Amino acid sequence: MPILPRRRYAEPLLLLLLAAVARSTAAAPDVVELILLTGAQEKGAVCLDGSPPGYHLQRGFGSGEHSWLIYLEGGAWCDTIESCSNRKTTELGSSKLMEAQEFEGILSNNQTVNSDFYNWNKVVIRYCDGASFSGNAEAQDQDGSTLHFRGLRIWQAVLDELMEKGLASAKQALLSGCSAGGLATLLHCNDFHARFPKEVSAKCLPDAGIFLDIEDLSGKRLMWSVFNGTVQLQNVSEVLPKDCLAKKDRTECFLATELVKSITAPTLIVNSAYDSWQIRDTLAPVGSYPGQSWLNCTNDIGNCNSTQMEVLNGFRKKFVDGVKVVKDKKDWGLFIDSCFMHCQTKYSISWSSQFSPVLGNMTIAKAVGDWYFERSKTVKEIDCEYPCNPTCKRTG
Asked: What is the enzyme's main class (predicted)?
């Protein structure tokens, strides 16, 4: 059964209300128009429906003229012909339905909001393939038309076009993305790093990209089912680490907890150990428990009873165990908070505002900046169990 994408990545209502309040008192984020990839059909780099993929580019200025941030959009996956067919009628499967995007959070050009990256060249690559920019196949849709699974070609072709537009002369570069885009960041991190000379500081910042292979409350492995279907249907193989494939099957190698073992480029993982999307959609989805017994808990972690918190803390333990390998990796970083959230870098409210989660006296923005620019010897923060961090109560 496919996990359907939710707009705004299913953030808690409180966070969205706080964001609205914060934005009402701050400068409005820039709206950046969509650019369609040149020669997409000839390159075979197309969205699910065959339309050209798109991206949004905001040029850097001043000291950031030769610095680039590439951000990969998220939005779940499609793992069956039916789910991909439905997806191609949305902006997550067709550029015909894409619109301009607001740039906020790490994408903001407001120095107060985004002091380290505000004047960089910033790009959002839109997600329209349904396999974290990694598939390479095609199939016949139910109506006889073609479903194009060309995420890998989209990644390659858009990066090539950006290299021609100035990325090739970057002095600093950062690949990021959230949710399915966070997983894509891990999948493409080594390739991104390899595109630049050694003297270029090229690093990776996956946000909410660590998805666990766990059983839901009824014993079903939903995440595994979706990933396995996606990998098989869309022929995900070329992007997977060869050292992993030598020992494990493709679906295992698509898991972030395996990918991190093969990534050599400097990487900082931003994630909640109580990832709200996974708790709602893969740990305690509707239908995996009797009646509405978990509904209040999955809508707001503050409503969870002691028995439910034991389950959530079990999820947290598996998550922390899954990223422990990073603690011994040089030049890597961790910002693992205990806030009930999903995707934190792309929203100003969680990136750097008065409502931002704080770990080690650092907001997410400060932690990322200190790690990227090596202002701190190490940034490896793992939060304690909910509700020990009072800054989480600001957002979720």
From this structure: hydrolase
Question: Is residue 266 within 8 Å of 167, Cβ to Cβ?
Answer: no
| Helix, strand, or coil (residue 323) | helix
User: In this structure, what token pair is assigned to residue 396?
Assistant: 């979720």
For 370-389, how does the pLDDT look when each residue is reduced to its tens digit (9 = 90+)? 999 999 989 999 999 999 99
Catalytic choice (49, 129, 207, 275): 275
φ/ψ region of 359 (left if φ > 0, alpha if ψ in -120 to 50, else beta) reads beta
Domains of the chain, start order = 7-394 (3.40.50)
Q: Tokens 């505000």 label which residue?
A: 118
- The 10s digit of each residue's pLDDT in 207-243 is 999 999 999 999 999 999 999 999 999 999 999 999 9
Catalytic residue, chosen from 67, 83, 134, 179, is 179
pTM: 0.94
Is residue 294 a contact partner of residue 308, using CB atoms and an 8 Å limit? yes
State yes or no: is 141 an active-site residue: no
5 to 75, 340, 374: CA distances (angstroms) = 5, 18, 35
